[in-house]
């Protein structure tokens, strides 16, 4: 259960609107040794402490994603930042529980059991795929960009990126051998599903073919990929949609071809940031087409010429964009195309978004409306001044 879903359902007064200061009422003395406050007075801060080094919660048997706790920890009130990990965990857990129903927690538990049943019975073809290894996963240019020192890393990452259209970045990422191994692993998993008649969940409501990598053991590997690499890219290019606070993901492979999904309709992703990497095989067609970034209010508005961009897939080459960037996939006209997708989400951003102002700075249509309103205001002011000058001249004839 993520915080954004919880808050949307809860609307509890113990978590006031983010437009107010979310400072906890605690029983502590402000020196980091206080006890956790009563359940009714739990609060988070509006602005995170960016310098605070969060705890690691991976070793705890949690009902929520461990990375969510690490992300939320920076939003704790000052006098709770230095208490024990257990105290911080209980404080954040109780906040999250207030925004999740028992039914949602039950569904989450059933999904964990579903995953565990797969993992306990499926025998991986390549176990080395299940632990992130940059030297065997990534091409040299990608690995080298991230190995730069802290001072130069951002610039080093920028140097490997191409921006063929505003807000869309492409770069070489995966080694051919890794792509082949992952393709074979997915094929092996699909074979196991067919032989055992195990009913699996497909990646999303739009794709009838493909596999959720998280469901058969790759969750921790993909979480590491997001945390160590994609989140850093997103902090540079997608700060306006919570790129600094990505804390959960949905990782999957989609399959296209004449006997698979052929194309994908116009849509937006359920993510803040989407990574899409072509794995192969041999195919023609299947280009992605992009048509501008939109908020929920403007998702069906017209496309402007400068927002039109088509992207041709190349194996091993990645494309990364905002989840709200409207896009689709043209028909794969021959062969088979498989792509790895990682939808990265930020619970903190989704909560903040609920209390946003009238316009958001990442939506193309919001920007146009804001500019139009500003222009109207300037024009009205000029007319007001002009009328005032005309009236003044009429009462002061020479």
Automatic annotation (TrEMBL):
Residues 247-346 form the Fe2OG dioxygenase domain. Residues 1-39 are annotated as: Disordered. This is Fe2OG dioxygenase domain-containing protein. Residues 1-12 have a biased composition (Basic and acidic residues). It comes from the Eukaryota. One of its GO terms (molecular function) is L-ascorbic acid binding. Keywords: Dioxygenase, Iron, Metal-binding, Oxidoreductase, Vitamin C. InterPro entries: Oxoglu/Fe-dep_dioxygenase_dom, Pro_4_hyd_alph. SMART domains: P4Hc. It comes from Lactuca saligna (Willowleaf lettuce). Its cofactor is L-ascorbate. The keyword Oxidoreductase applies.
């Amino acid at each position: 259960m993520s915080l954004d879903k919880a808050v949307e359902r809860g609307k509890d007064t113990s978590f006031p609107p983010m437009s107010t200061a979310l400072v906890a009422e605690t029983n502590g003395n402000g020196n980091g040794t206080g006890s956790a406050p009563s359940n009714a007075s739990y609060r988070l801060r509006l602005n995170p402490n960016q310098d605070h080094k969060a705890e690691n919660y991976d070793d705890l048997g949690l009902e929520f994603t461990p990375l969510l706790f690490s992300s939320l920890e920076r939003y704790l009130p000052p006098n709770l930042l230095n208490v024990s990990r257990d105290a911080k965990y209980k404080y954040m857990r109780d906040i999250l529980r207030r925004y999740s129903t028992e039914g949602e927690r039950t569904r989450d538990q059933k999904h964990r059991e579903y995953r565990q049943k797969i993992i306990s019975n499926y025998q991986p073809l390549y176990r080395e795929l299940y632990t992130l290894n940059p030297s065997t996963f990534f091409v040299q240019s990608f690995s080298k960009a991230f190995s730069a020192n802290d001072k130069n890393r951002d610039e080093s990452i920028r140097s490997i990126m191409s921006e063929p259209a505003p807000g869309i970045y492409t770069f070489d990422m995966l080694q051919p051998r890794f792509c082949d191994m992952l393709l074979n692993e997915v094929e092996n998993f699909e074979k196991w599903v067919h032989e055992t008649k195990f009913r699996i969940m497909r990646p999303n409501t739009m794709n009838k073919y493909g596999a959720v990598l998280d469901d058969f053991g790759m969750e921790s590997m993909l979480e590491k990929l997001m945390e160590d690499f994609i989140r850093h890219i997103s902090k540079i290019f997608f700060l306006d949609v919570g790129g600094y606070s990505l804390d959960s993901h949905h990782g999957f492979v989609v399959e296209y071809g004449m006997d698979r999904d052929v194309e994908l309709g116009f849509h937006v992703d359920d993510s803040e940031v989407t990574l899409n990497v072509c794995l192969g095989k041999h195919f023609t067609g299947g280009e992605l087409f992009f048509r501008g970034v939109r908020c929920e209010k403007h998702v069906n508005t017209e496309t402007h010429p400068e927002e039109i961009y088509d992207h041709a897939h190349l194996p091993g080459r990645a494309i990364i964009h905002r989840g709200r960037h409207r896009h689709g996939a043209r028909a794969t006209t021959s062969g088979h195309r498989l792509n790895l997708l990682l939808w990265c989400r930020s619970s903190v951003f989704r909560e903040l978004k609920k209390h946003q102002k009238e316009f958001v700075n990442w939506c193309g249509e919001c920007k146009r409306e804001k500019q139009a309103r500003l222009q109207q205001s300037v024009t009205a002011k000029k007319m007001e001044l002009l009328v005032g000058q005309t009236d003044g001249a009429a009462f002061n004839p020479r």
